[in-house]
Amino acid sequence: MKQRRMRGWLLMLMLVLVGLPLLQAGHIIGGVMSYECLGNNRYEFTLRVYRDCNCTMCAQLDASAEIGIYRCSSAGNCEGQSQAQPYGTVSVPLASQSSIEEPDYPCLIPPDVCGQEGIYRFTLDLPVSSSSYFVAYQRCCRNVTIDNLINPDAAGATFMIELTPAAQLVCNSSPSFGTYPPIIICNNAPLVYDHSAIDPDGDMLVYEFCAPLLGGGPDLDPLYYNTCGGASPIPACPPPYNTVTFQAPNYTSTSPMGGNPTITIDPMTGVITGTPQFEGQFVVGVCVSEYRNGLLLSKVFRDFQFNVASCDPTVVADIEEDVQISDQEFVVNSCGDYTIDFVNQSFQQAYIDNFSWVFDVGNGEMATFNEWSPSITFPGVGTYEGYLYLNENTDCGDTARIFVNIYPSIEADFSFAYDTCVAGPVSFTDLSQTGSCCLTDWDWDFGDGQGSGLQNPDHLYQFPGDIPITLTVQDTNDCVASSTQLLNYYPVPALIVIAPSEELACQPAEIFFNNLSSPIDTTYTIVWDFGDGQFGSDISPFHTYEDPGIYTVSVDITSPLGCQTDTTFNNLVTVLPSPVAGFTYAPDQPSNLFPEVQFTDASQGAIAWNWDFGVSPGSQFPSPLFVFPDTGLYLVTQVVSHPSGCTDTVQMIIDVIPEIRYYLPNAFTPNGDGTNDTFRGKGFLEGAREFQFRIWNRWGEPMFETNDPLAAWNGRKNNVGQEAPPGVYLVVVTFKDPRGKPVEMKGYATLIR
C-alpha cells in the first residue's frame, strides 16, 4: 500500500513540474446517452456530459470519451466479460462544449451558478444480435457539495444505453432530451419543468424517478486510474452497474429532494412539479422507457443536479405608509388634507414595465392614475380603498392594497399669562381644536428642558429669555398638530437672595457674593454697593475689603423690560483687624561652621507667635535662637496672632551653606628636627571633591603631586628622590566645594635648609 501511494504522489508531482493539470475528479453534475438508427445496422450515439464550472480544483470535460461496448446474452449481466475483453471500444473526441443557460426568472434573482455541457458523437456498426449491446462511458466523481447522496465526492457516474434485440430488429431510435433542466430552482417557489423526451418513431414513453448509475471510483493512483475502481475507466466497464446511495430516509431515488409533499414526475408527460422545501444540491435520476405495441424497446437513463437556492424577489410593490398591516397591505392617514402625495417605494424598478394606481374616490367610482408617485385628491372625510399594480397580469407582477383614511382637521393653539415684572409661574391655556370627537393628548415643551402632559399647566422658569413654547396635541384619530410661540420672559426676582447671609472675615477680606436670585442673566443691569465706597456690576462678584469694619451691602436689579427691584443687607460683612507678620535673622549667611541663627520678631499687632524652622523643634518665643542641624535650604515660617483672633504668616528661605576653610603656609624646614619638616595645606575640607595638590620648581619641573588632602611634601622629588635645593617653589591646589563650585588656590613654598 505504501508503494502504491508513493507512485501516485510521484506522478502528481511530475505532472505539476511539467505544467500539466492534476488528475482531479470532482465535477460531474449529470449526463445522458441516446442513439439514432441510421440503417444497415449502423447507429449514431450521442453522449452528453454535464459539469460544474464553479467548483474549485475540478476536472475539465474529458478531451476524449473512452467508450466501452459489451454484448451480453442475458439482460444487464455480461457474465464472463471484463474491462480487458470488451466487444469493442472507441475513443470519441469532444465535439462541442457550451455553457448551460440559466433559467429566465423575471421576478427572482438566483445565486451565481455555472454549468457546462460537453457533447460526444460517434457511430457504430452493430450486427443484429439476439443479445443486447451495452454502450457505456464512466467517469468519477460527483460534486462534494451534493446533499442527498452518501459520499458524493467518491461516487462516479455511468452514462450508458442498452440496444435491445427488439430495438435492433426494427432499427429503433431511442428517445432524446432537448434541454438541460433549470440549473437553479428557487426554494419555496413552485416548480414546473417539462422533462419530456422526443421519440422520432412516435413510440409510447413512460417516465419515472430512478437511481443514477455508479461508475468508476475516486482512486487517482496512476496504476489504478483507468481501472473500474479508478477515476477514469478506459474503457468503461461491463454491466451490471450499481446505483448511487441516497441519504435515506430523508432522500430516496423516488423522492430525491425530500419534503412533504415530495417533488413528482408525471409518468405520461414527464412534467416535474412540486415546491422545493430545502436548499442545497440534489442529484435527480429520470428514466424514460420506450414501448411499441406493448414491447419495451429501450430505456434511457438521465441524471442531473438540481441546485435549490434562496432567490431574492426583484419586483415588490411598496409605498411610504403610516401603518403597514402586512407585506402587501398599507394604511395612509391624512388629517384635514384631502390631497395625498403618495410615495412609490416599489423595487426593483428596472424590472417594472408598467404600473397603475386604482382608487375608489367615492360613490363607487374607480379612478386610475399612471404617475409613479401621484397626488390624489379625495372628496372628503372618509375611508378609501385602492391598489398599486406592478406588471399587472404577468408572472413578474405584484400588488399593494392601500387604505386611505381622511380624518377631520386638527389645529394646535394656546395662550399664556404671567406677571411681566415680578417672577412667578406662567399659566398656559390650551386653545386647540379638532373636527373629530375630541382631543386625547397634550404634550407641552416649555423650552427649558421641562414639559407637561396636562391640558392647562402652570410652569415656573428659573432663567429669563426669549423662550420657544411648543404644544403638540393628538385626537381620537391619532391626528397630530403642533404650535410654537415665543415667550419673552424677563421679570425681576420676587426675592433677592445672596450668599453668604452674613460674613466674618479677617483683614484683608476677599468675599464672594453668590447671587442666588432667579430669574436673572447677563442681560439684566445689576449694581452692587459694597459699603466701602466701591461698586460692582457682575451677577455674582468678588470684592476685597482692605480695612477693618462693619459693612452694609445693597444690590439693585433692573430687567431688560425696565422692571426694577433692590435689597439692602445691613451689617452683612464684618472685617476684623489682622496682625502683620515679619522677622529678621543673623548672621546673614549661616553655615556649617556657624549654624546658630538668631531670629528677631518684626511683626506688628501680634500677641502670639508660632515658628516653624523646616525641621523640629519649632518655637513660640517672639525672637528665638535656633541651631540648624545640617547644611541646606530651610523654609522658615512665622505665624502671628492678633487679639481679634486673626493671623498673618510670613515665610523666608534660609540657606545654611557648607563652608570650607583652607590655607597654605609659606615655608618649611625639612631638617629632621620634628618641627615644620613637611609642607601641606591646612584647614577644613569636609565635603570637598576632586582635590589635587601640586608643586613645581622655578624651572617648571614637577616636584610633588597628590590627591590626598592629608599628604605633605618632604622636600625631595616625589618624596623619594634627591633633596631639593633651598628656594621658592610654586604651589597650586584645586578642588570642588560641597556644592560643586570649582576652587583654585595658588601660593609659594619656601624651602629652608
Question: What are its keywords?
Answer:
8-stranded mixed beta sheet; 753 residues; Immunoglobulin-like; 6 domains; 56 strands; 2 helices; disordered N terminus; mainly beta; 6-stranded mixed beta sheet
Task: Provide structural commentary.
- The protein is mainly beta and 753 residues long.
- It has six domains: 24-309, no CATH class; 323-407, Immunoglobulins (Immunoglobulin-like), CATH 2.60.40; 410-489, Immunoglobulins (Immunoglobulin-like, Sandwich), CATH 2.60.40.10; 500-575, Immunoglobulins (Immunoglobulin-like); 583-656, Immunoglobulin-like (Sandwich), CATH 2.60.40.10; 661-751, Immunoglobulin-like.
- 3% of the residues lie in helices and 44% in strands.
- It is built from two helices and 56 strands.
- The strands form 16 sheets. Strands 1, 2, 5, 7, 10, 12, 15 and 16 form an eight-stranded mixed sheet that branches. A six-stranded mixed sheet has the order 18-19-25-24-21-22, with no helix packed on it. Strands 36-43-42-39-40 form a five-stranded mixed sheet, with no helix packed on it.
- The chain starts with a helix and ends with a strand.
